[in-house]
Amino acid sequence: MPEPVHTPEPAAPKPPDRARRAAILATVGIVVIMGLAAFAGTVVVPLWQVHATLGGWGDQRSSRKELIKRLGGPDRAARRLSTYLRLPRWMGTNRSETARALGWIGPEAKVAVPTLIKALRDAEPSVREEVAFALAKIGPGAVEAVPALAEALQDADENVRAQAVRALHCIGLGGKTAVPALVRYCAEEDGSVRESAIYALMSTCPGAEEAVPALIELLSDANPDVREFAARSLSIVGPAAKKATPVLQERLRDTHARVRVSAAWALFQTGEQATTLVSVLIEALDDPDAAEIAANVLSQVSPDEQETVPALLKALASEDAKARSAVVRALGRIGTDAEEVVPALAALLDDPDVRWDAVEALGRFGPAAKDAVPALVNALSAPSRQVHRRRGSRMHREIAEALRMIGQDAREAVPALEKLLHDPDQEVRWAASAALKKIRGEVPTPSVPEKPSPPRD
């Protein structure tokens, strides 16, 4: 019987030596330490820096710039602040200050918009208010926040609602989806919310036909400010607001002049014949509260200067400086009846409230304003330069530009313009040089249209 064969058992593996084990542990430790150091350097330290920097920081403009600088400039600051705002409440305690700081950065904080959208649901009203403020400062770049801002219009806190409306206004045309919500707040009892909603609606209205029915209702609101801004909003909608014509025509007889003027402008923008509107606008020139906007509208809708210009010249006697400025600009836009208008404008060069507008209006008349050259030359030595250096330089530049527009008929101004060639302000020197070349015939003289086409707002 054969003897059994004994197979030797495999040898047990040898444990790694201590040196190898120590090397592995050291490598793992180094990797962990490096990872922790990287995490601390890229997350913990920046967030702690944000926390420490925000505490007790001032609200002055210089302080804002210093804060952004300390956080690494606009882009890096926006990213750091956005990360901080995403922290749990128990970690990120300066949430209101963080959102406000993002607003200080402005459009360059666009990268933080997704975080700000989430923060609009924060439990603290002060945080939600500052978040809406930040979105307003970011402006059109925050268009993706429109749905969240429209929802914020229902917020229980009136300050949050006001800031949400303001943000929608700053975002502008991108906020069209919020039109239905904005319309509801145009009749809000709180004046600040109502005004902000109306302005926001005006900025989102061009072509927004869906807003017309609600705006028609607002034309009958008991508050004249609401009626006025509803009419202005309809003017921005344009031809798509044609269905509002009957109610707008009723508003031409409104007891408040500003409402009548706004209704006239809206009717003109929707296609109404201007001849039916001029009398309403001329009548409004006598109302101190409406004279300014009436003059602006009148210069753009009037088809008959023979009726309009005398009314505007009469309105130059208004005691309100803004109204006088608007009338001067309107006369410059219309650009006719130089024999009557130019002397009236030249007489206003001594009026500190409207002299700049008068100079610009005279320039619009071109060669037809040649009789105003002596007055323009005298204005070059006006005391405004001694009162305010910067404003004096601007006045000299504007006068030189007006003389350039008058052209070769302004030869009387050559000695005064030559003195300006040595002015310390470079822009004044450039304007004087251009005027002298034009007057001396060194450059072609372009033809001046009889009536400059008015700018459209």
Structure description:
With 457 residues, the protein is an all-alpha fold. Among the domains are: 59-172, Leucine-rich Repeat Variant (Alpha Horseshoe); 335-457, Alpha Horseshoe (Leucine-rich Repeat Variant), CATH 1.25.10. Helices cover 63% and strands 0% of the residues. It has helices at residues 18-54, 61-70, 74-85, 95-105, 113-119, 125-138, 146-152, 158-171, 179-185, 191-204, 212-218, 224-237, 245-251, 257-269, 278-284, 291-301, 305-315, 321-334, 338-347, 355-365, 373-379, 384-387, 389-406, 414-420, 426-439. Helix 15 (278-284) runs antiparallel to helix 16, helix 19 (338-347) packs antiparallel against helix 20 (355-365) and helix 23 (389-406) runs parallel beside helix 25 (426-439). The longest helix has 37 residues, at 18-54. It starts with 17 loop residues before the first helix and ends in an 18-residue tail after the last helix. Residues 36-48, 384-390 and 445-457 have low confidence and may be disordered.
Summarize the structure.
The protein has 457 residues and is mainly alpha-helical. The chain has helices spanning 18-54, 61-70, 74-85, 95-105, 113-119, 125-138, 146-152, 158-171, 179-185, 191-204, 212-218, 224-237, 245-251, 257-269, 278-284, 291-301, 305-315, 321-334, 338-347, 355-365, 373-379, 384-387, 389-406, 414-420, 426-439.
Question: Can you tell me the CATH class of one domain?
Answer: Mainly Alpha
Number of helices: 25
- What's the N-to-C terminus distance? 119 Å
Q: Just name the CATH architecture of one domain.
A: Alpha Horseshoe
What about the largest sheet?
Answer: none
Q: Low-confidence parts, pLDDT < 50 over ≥5 residues? A: 36-48, 384-390, 445-457
Structural class: mainly alpha
The proportion of residues in beta strands is under 5%
Rg result: 34 Å
Give the integer mean of the pLDDT values: 79
Task: Report the CATH superfamily of one domain.
Answer: Leucine-rich Repeat Variant
Q: Estimate the global geometry from the Cα principal axes.
A: flat
Can you write the helix and strand succession as a string?
HHHHHHHHHHHHHHHHHHHHHHHHH
Number of strands: 0
Assembly status: single chain
The CATH topology of one domain turns out to be Leucine-rich Repeat Variant
In which range does the helix fraction lie? 55-70%
